[in-house]
Amino acid sequence: VPDVNRPPRRIPDATVARLPVYHRCLLELREAGAATVSSEALAEQSGVTASKVRKDLSYLGTYGTRGVGYDVENLVRQIGRELGLTGNWPIVIVGIGNLGRALAAYGGFTARGFRIVGLLDDDPAKHGSRLGDHLVRPTSALAEVVAGDTSVIGVIAVPAAAAQDVADAMVRAGITSILSFSPTVLAAPPGVAVRVVDLASELQILTFHQHQRTEPAA
Amino acid sequence: VPDVNRPPRRIPDATVARLPVYHRCLLELREAGAATVSSEALAEQSGVTASKVRKDLSYLGTYGTRGVGYDVENLVRQIGRELGLTGNWPIVIVGIGNLGRALAAYGGFTARGFRIVGLLDDDPAKHGSRLGDHLVRPTSALAEVVAGDTSVIGVIAVPAAAAQDVADAMVRAGITSILSFSPTVLAAPPGVAVRVVDLASELQILTFHQHQRTEPAA
DNA sequence: TAGATTGTTAATCGATTAACAATC
DNA sequence: TAGATTGTTAATCGATTAACAATC
């Protein structure tokens, strides 16, 4: 009887955050016809160190071959499996303003395995307007759109003042993964994963460094 | 002669990334009429721990009062000063597709002290079209728009395949801070700060956790 | 004075890095 | 076999946390 191999499957957050980058680079490498890739080459393309690449990949399993490198096709599959990239994640976007419209039309989501299942907004003037394959519907349709499918990912692009209400409604509808572009902290119960991308904060982090460089002797 | 106070002005990256959040919360608190705030209250509103708030703020200086808390007005000013928020950072957006248009119209940039000085795109069909106060111009106008002003922040929203070329052009034009929404790693010389926000990667990090929860015994 | 809350310390935790034995 | 490259170790670095003396 072979030993039941129970790997300590605890992948560090920092590693998880880099897996999508590796995945993207590997897709490009495959596209370019590469059969194998070394940690050195993948590191170069991903903008990290080779040491980091090897350590990160070692958390997933032993997929490399010493003296050779990693099989591109296999590594794409393994990282995709780890990230749960089944190629078919439903997303619902709430808030069809400038940003929501841009997200709805963004080809990058479709290309990376996501499909929109609903576009919601509470402005009656927007209801019924068509965006791609979808009609804009009221936010109250959230439960209907999700329909108990806990794999649906909620995307929030409403003004900050409305974001918490939308997040609450998403949680009530059974959503457990939320990506918000509203510049405000969101509270959510333990089982719900929330990521906030604040575009202005990203710029402000840049101004900090710029400011440090231009006025070094503050 | 008073001792020349030379504080070890090295602020950790993790702290810098949180300063915009504190700043935003403090603006809200000020709006709500709060004169002072405790680390506990600011932590609650910022979604972090009180210990973290105090440690972070201690890197900036000694701005709190024991037994009382922090003066909201003063803390807004101090964090703003640290981030270099002069209320007038010029940004140029290259790539006026869905996302670029949304960014150009995004009120959050204006509200947080940024102003657009140029909208550029290499599609001739877009040239001359008006977006807010600006006409869309060819990317070749970059040097002219920047005009040697190294405080200009470059925002990239072109397809991944074109992003490195745009980044190179920005660097040539004298830009030293770049925020890219193109899903690709960007190479830049040492003095140039680059941040990449990859929208699809953000979703993929969520699918990892979702996948872990739904298929715990992989 | 008594109660509240900061600023800082020290311990812990997690992430990065360099080095190299293992091995293809 | 010789050269290349992984997987892993151990050291280092940076960030978080809890605790509490200082002090308003």
Structure, briefly:
2 copies of one chain form a homodimer. With 218 residues, chain A is of the alpha/beta class.
Structural class of chain A: alpha/beta
Mean pLDDT across every amino acid position of chain A: 93
Quaternary structure state of the chains depicted: homodimer
- What is the number of helices of chain A? 9
Dominant shape of chain A: globular
What characteristics describe this protein?
DNA-binding; globular; homodimer
List the helices and strands and how they pair.
The structure is a homodimer of 218-residue chains.
Chain A: H1 13-31, E1 36-37, H2 39-46, H3 50-60, E2 64-65, E3 69-71, H4 72-83, E4 89-94, H5 98-105, H6 107-111, E5 114-120, E6 130-131, E7 134-137, H7 142-146, E8 153-156, H8 160-172, E9 177-180, E10 193-196, H9 199-214
Helix pairs in contact in A: 1-4, 2-3
Chain A binds a DNA duplex (24 and 24 nucleotides) through residues 12-15, 38-40, 49-52, 54-55, 57-58, 62, 64-70.
How would you characterize this protein structure?
The structure is a homodimer of 218-residue chains. Residues 1-7 of chain A have low confidence and may be disordered. Chain A is built from 9 helices and 10 strands. Chain A has helices at 13-31, 39-46, 50-60, 72-83, 98-105, 107-111, 142-146, 160-172, 199-214, and strands spanning 36-37, 64-65, 69-71, 89-94, 114-120, 130-131, 134-137, 153-156, 177-180, 193-196. The termini of chain A are far apart. In chain A, the strands form 2 sheets. A 7-stranded mixed beta sheet of chain A has the order 6-7-5-4-8-9-10, sandwiched between helices. Chain A has a 3-stranded antiparallel beta sheet with strand order 1-3-2. By secondary structure, chain A is of the alpha/beta class. In chain A, strand 8, helix 8 (160-172) and strand 9 form a beta-alpha-beta unit. Chains A and B meet through helix 1, helix 4, helix 5, helix 6 and strand 9 of A and helix 1, helix 5, helix 6, strand 9 and helix 9 of B. Chain A binds a DNA duplex (24 and 24 nucleotides) through helix 1, helix 3 and strand 2.
